[in-house]
Design goal:
By secondary structure, the chain is an all-alpha fold. The chain has one domain. About 80% of the residues lie in helices and about 0% in strands. Helix 18 packs antiparallel against helix 19. The longest helix is centred in the middle third of the chain and has 34 residues. The N and C termini lie far apart (about 50 Å).
């Protein structure tokens, strides 16, 4: 069958599967197998189905994903999240919008140990939302702040999305992880500035709590921050200094988190089993999407569709910024419908060669792609973090309220994205200094 016809059939079938609720990884995999069956032949389709699941999960580089997930799960069990939030609460709580800023700061710091936006959003929903509600904060501001701050784990290393991007595009995992640090901190800083200015303009959104924290109590609260600092230095410091590669860093970080749990005497058999179980479920979900995406990408490659699309796009001879605009629009539109990991495995095999051909740096492009994925996590109608906040909330809240709360943060994200595009050195500075 003609590759173009096979492509149309596959896309229609995938649209139907997604509409009826088939998991995105399964839909991608079935679409890829069917496409190869129609366009190349049954032997090629069955051969890919037999080899890709094993070759993907047997990847040494991809082993960093379950290790980072396990590190985040152990860090949560060690109570590092609670310690972080308490320290931020004590130092910022008396400021206008201080509790929301404390949530943003603690969420950004926890992202350095977690790497998962879903875990980040769920943890802080259960911990910070009741606290802000108790002190009279507007429910939309509180929920929107938590949903948006959870996305910071996508940029601040260690980031699972960065690893996925590196695998698909065959770039350095270490450079990409380090490249996300400054943009991630910049995003958190802009969030905090936006919260402060907004709450100054509309004081009713965030009343100043009637709490008193002494200077001594503030300094004592910093004792709980050492765990995150230790893990971050261990993992990212080791990668940046060239002591070990990211996969080893993930293993060292997971073991470091395990030692912290032991040191805090929070270890027991039931907790250990539940932690490994949760990490395994999260890892399996991600790997299903990756395997399905690779099968779909093989279909695009074998049929020559990637080359045909690339040649067509490059033949348009547009200015580089027009290609970047198309890339951003594609991510934002798809982000309203499907998961960020699925977006990357679907689009990068086609778009990455085009974007690098017109002169964009692959490391810088990775950070831009992750930032766009962050934005998609809180974009209606399927902002994944919005649904996580709604599901994990211990107090009654509607999806409409959460979506209303994230709109100001979407605007702040677009401003940050503009800075990263206008000043690429924000992204490339640290990777260029790596040993």
């Amino acid at each position: 069958m003609d590759p173009a016809t096979a492509g149309i059939i596959v896309l229609v079938l995938m649209a139907i599967m997604l509409a009826v609720g088939v998991h995105i990884g399964v839909a991608l995999g079935l679409g890829g197998i069917l496409g190869m069956y129609l366009a190349v032949g049954p032997d090629a389709a069955w051969a890919q189905l037999a080899t890709i699941p094993f070759s993907t999960t047997n990847s040494f580089t991809l082993a960093v994903i379950p290790l980072f997930i396990l590190m985040g799960a152990l860090a949560t069990q060690a109570g590092l999240t609670t310690d972080l939030y308490k320290a931020a609460h004590d130092w910022l709580g008396r400021m206008r919008g201080g509790l929301a800023m404390a949530t943003t700061l603690a969420s950004a710091a926890f992202g350095a140990a977690c790497g998962s936006t879903i875990v980040n959003a769920a943890v802080f929903t259960r911990m910070a939302l009741p606290e802000m509600t108790r002190f009279g904060y507007d429910i939309r501001l509180s929920a929107g702040c938590i949903a948006a701050s959870g996305t910071l784990a996508s940029l601040i290393p260690p980031s699972i999305l960065m690893v996925i991007y590196a695998i698909i595009t065959e770039q350095s995992v270490a450079k990409l992880l380090v490249a996300g640090l400054i943009p991630g901190l910049l995003s958190a800083g802009i969030y905090m500035l936006g919260i402060y200015l907004g709450c100054r303009r509309w004081p009713h959104l965030a009343p100043i709590p009637e709490i008193e924290v002494t200077r001594a109590e503030k300094w004592r609260s910093l004792r709980g921050v050492w765990g995150i600092g230790f893990l971050f230095t261990l993992v990212i410091g080791g990668i940046y200094a060239g002591f070990f590669i990211p996969t080893y860093a993930g293993a060292v970080g997971a073991f470091g988190a395990f030692l912290i749990v032991l040191g805090k005497r929070r270890m027991n058999l039931r907790m250990l089993i539940d932690t490994f179980k949760d990490a395994g479920i999260t890892t399996t979900t991600i790997f299903i999407i990756v395997i399905g995406g690779i099968l779909f990408a093989r279909f695009l490659t074998y049929t020559g569709l990637v080359q045909e699309i690339s040649d067509y796009m490059l033949a348009l001879d547009m200015e580089p910024y027009m290609y970047l605009l198309a890339f951003a629009a594609l991510y934002l539109v798809l982000g309203m419908l499907i998961d960020p990991i699925a977006i990357m495995v679907m689009t990068l095999p086609v778009m990455f060669p085009i974007m690098t051909s017109v002169g964009y740096d692959p490391i810088w492009l990775g950070v831009i792609a992750i930032k766009l994925a962050e934005i998609s996590l809180i974009t209606p109608p399927v902002g994944l973090n919005v649904y996580v906040v709604r599901s994990a909330s211990p107090i009654p809240i509607s999806l409409e309220q959460v979506f209303a709360g994230v709109i100001p943060f979407l605007i702040l994200d677009l401003f940050t994205l503009g800075l990263l595009i206008s000043f690429p050195a924000i992204v490339t500075f640290l990777p260029n200094l790596m040993l």
